[in-house]
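Database export, one record per block. Field names are fixed; values are copied verbatim from the stored entry.
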Amino acid sequence: MSPAFISVCRVSFLNVHQVNPRPIFDAVFASDPIKEERNIRAQTSVVIGEDAKRRWTFSVATQLDRVDIVQQAILDSWADPANFTTLLPVESVVGAFVNRLLERTIVLPWIAPRIALGCVAQWSLPSQADINDALRRLNPGLPIEAEDEEVQFRRNRPSKLDVDGHLVRCNRIISWQSARSVIVTVGALSPPVVSRQMLMAETDCNSDQERSEALGQPFGELLLRMLADQTTLLLPNEIPQ
């Protein structure tokens, strides 16, 4: 069995006026930033930091019409996520990230009319043929042959969410692709060449793009938790080999 490794979690507030990212970063991640950048011409700002054990980078980035709050894994280039002993289920990882944001809900820009939750997940598999077989099992009828390489596809399966009695359209987008990582080092004491086959998926569950009214805090919190639920439905915890 190949367990999922969630390397990126992101919450985006969309169609919202630009805000200062620093108060959000300080409140949500409670750490000192290692970098702050502002591009006046592009009208972008970003604050970046990391946890004390250097396992994750944290960032809050703002543009003219969006705010992105991101948690991304810092991986040793030789690490194989399949061998990690503390991989948690998708639901736990996504839920913990959302809970972290909602513990500091007062600083979040709920004046936004739209919100999106995205994740990047990966699974280590023995070969490209195993990846192709896994994709066919996950998506019956997909025209993939065992010998195909560089496979990628994207689909949106929209749904309606009942948020406190209000129906909200939700785009449930997932992009699948096969990937091969090759690491080559030089020197007598260097490890040998390492090659790994990965199945990767990127999700984007976002709310109604036609909405212009501000979400507001109570409604936005409920919607964000529902988007987290939809994300866990898209990403399997494990892929049988």
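Remark 1: The radius of gyration is 19 Å.
Remark 2: The longest strand covers residues 166-183.
End of record.
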